[in-house]
Design brief:
mainly alpha, two-stranded antiparallel sheet, 19 helices, 2 strands, elongated
């Protein structure tokens, strides 16, 4: 165990022998994190995946740098069918420990298996569609989609839960029991699955108790001994023939003729009439069924058309000129520019300004982390370059260009009194005294210790203008300490590369989702043509 203050190896004492830091509580936290990790490992070995995930999350709350716990949590998520959550944990693990980390192998295995990625994307898309069908009450369509989801991703536990719940609602307890028992083989610690399975078994038991099991009737027979043999004769066995065979034959012929004349012919006529009536009834029922099928097909066509419209809107949100995909492209271009030339902050800042989607409800957590990382490293350098360019334009008399660059510099660095002062001077030189007055007042109120305060006050009191040349090397003189962006270290570069890989995976998933939406639209058109 290493000291959190100096990095030296700790002894059994509750203080660091190198720096003297109190490490008693620190040791307890690390041991608690390892305890949770060991418990999660044991639960994972017996396929209690839900319990293992909960223990591993508790372990990471105690020690977010617990690499074995984070990698194991990613494996548990992957086994539960949540591939995106697994990739997130492995990428975070790689950002904490860039070298000698088994998370590299996990990420490469997922990225190199494009067929697996496509199946996962289609499964997630179909699950979301099934969830929408369920909320609208179209349970039959939801069941069809969930069966496809399980065929694509057989470990997605949420799909088993939803399908089992629909079966229970439809009172198909046998199907629910079979499906939920299959889910228990994947994750035997899932409390929702256990609760649904118990309810299905209880309903099946109550139904069997109400109906009762049929009893088989034993066929009765007569048994008797004949010498050493046992003869078994059924009660409904054939009777022995009489002795008067000829007489019986004659009587049979007479009776047969009478039956044919008086019974068979009328019966055949009646049978023919009955057959005709039956055929008419069947034709009528078939027409009624066809009419009901046509109404059902019309409803399905309307539902599929609505689904098609929703898919088109969803596709437009991702692929439009102002959609999420365009923001991903701007973010990747900004990251690539920053990696190629960290000193060229203006190019990266230009791409970041084009990004309009920064809400967590629309983009992923990896997107927001990468955006925050680039913004914190680029803004300060870009502000300095905008300030330098603006001062050069101010000295050359290009006041419009100076206003543009100094405005950007001040927007990026609100603590820079130099940018605010020369922006006011540029407006004043450009014959916009109202705007210049507003900015001078802001300078005096915001930066009371600035070296430019006296010049600004002279203009406000006496209208005295500053005709001196601006210093190109002018920096913040407000007396407040500026925060500069930290130099990009090798560890930050590795974290940035890992984040770029996550964004590439996200972009591939969105492209696969768009392709799946287009394929679904084609299938709906084919179904409409078949219904017509």
């Amino acid at each position: 165990m290493k000291c959190y203050n100096c990095g030296c190896t700790l002894s059994e004492d509750n203080f660091c022998t190198a720096c003297g830091a109190d490490v008693g509580v620190y040791k307890k936290i690390i041991r608690l994190s390892n305890t949770y990790y060991n418990e999660g490992l044991e639960r994972a070995r017996v396929r209690d995946l839900s319990g293992a995930a909960e223990c591993l999350r508790q372990s990471l709350k105690c020690n977010k740098n617990n690499i074995p716990a984070r990698n194991l949590l990613g494996l548990v998520y992957f086994e539960m069918g949540e591939v995106v959550a697994a990739l997130s944990e492995w990428i975070l693990s790689k950002s904490i420990r860039p070298k000698k980390n088994i998370a590299d192998d996990f990420i490469n295995d997922v990225q190199n298996n494009q067929a697996r990625l496509n199946s996962v994307n289609q499964a997630v898309k179909k699950y979301n569609q099934a969830l929408a069908y369920t909320r609208r009450g179209d349970l039959d369509l939801a069941v069809i989609q969930l069966k496809k989801v399980i065929s694509l991703n057989g470990n997605l536990m949420v799909a088993y839960q939803l399908l089992g719940l629909i079966y229970i609602k439809n009172k198909e307890y046998g199907k629910a029991k079979k499906l939920l028992e299959r889910a228990m083989q994947i994750d035997n610690g899932n409390t929702s699955i256990r609760m649904y399975l118990q309810e299905a078994k209880q309903e099946i038991a109550e139904r069997e108790a109400r109906i009762g099991k049929p009893q088989k009737k034993r066929e009765e027979a007569i048994t008797y001994q004949s010498g050493n043999e046992t003869i078994i004769q059924p009660l409904n066995g054939p009777e022995r023939a009489g002795r008067h065979t000829i007489f019986n034959i004659l009587i049979g012929l007479v009776l047969g003729m009478a039956v044919m004349w008086f019974l068979i012919l009328p019966a055949r006529i009646q049978s023919a009439k009955s057959d005709i009536n039956t055929q008419l009834k069947d034709v009528s029922e078939e027409l009624t069924t066809k009419s009901a099928d046509m109404d059902d097909l019309n409803r399905q066509i309307a539902s599929l058309q609505q689904s098609n419209d929703e898919a088109q809107l969803s596709l437009e949100e991702y692929t439009g000129s102002t959609g999420v995909m365009q923001d991903y492209n701007y973010l990747l271009q900004a990251a690539q520019s920053y990696i190629n030339d960290p000193e060229d902050a203006l190019t990266a800042a230009g791409y970041l300004e084009q990004i309009k989607t920064t809400s967590g409800n629309q983009v992923s957590e990896q997107f927001l982390n990468l955006y925050s990382f680039l913004d914190s490293n680029v803004s300060a350098k870009a502000a300095e370059q905008y300030l330098s360019n603006g001062i050069d334009q101010y000295n050359d008399g290009d006041y419009d260009g100076a206003i543009e660059n100094l405005t950007r510099a001040y927007d990026l660095d609100k603590d820079n009194d130099s940018a605010l002062y020369y922006l006011a001077q540029s407006y004043l030189k450009n014959d916009n005294k109202d705007k210049a007055t507003e900015l001078f007042n802001r300078l005096i109120s915001t930066f009371p210790n600035s070296s430019f305060k006296t010049k600004a006050q002279r203009f406000l009191d006496h209208g005295e203008e500053d005709d001196s040349q601006a210093d190109v090397d002018t920096e913040n003189t407000s007396g407040e300490q500026n925060q500069t962006a930290p130099d990009t270290t090798a560890e930050q570069q590795a974290a940035l590369q890992a984040a770029l890989q996550a964004q590439a995976i996200q972009q591939a998933q969105e492209a696969a989702a768009a392709a799946a939406a287009q394929q679904q639209q084609q299938q709906q058109q084919q179904q409409q043509a078949a219904g017509q």
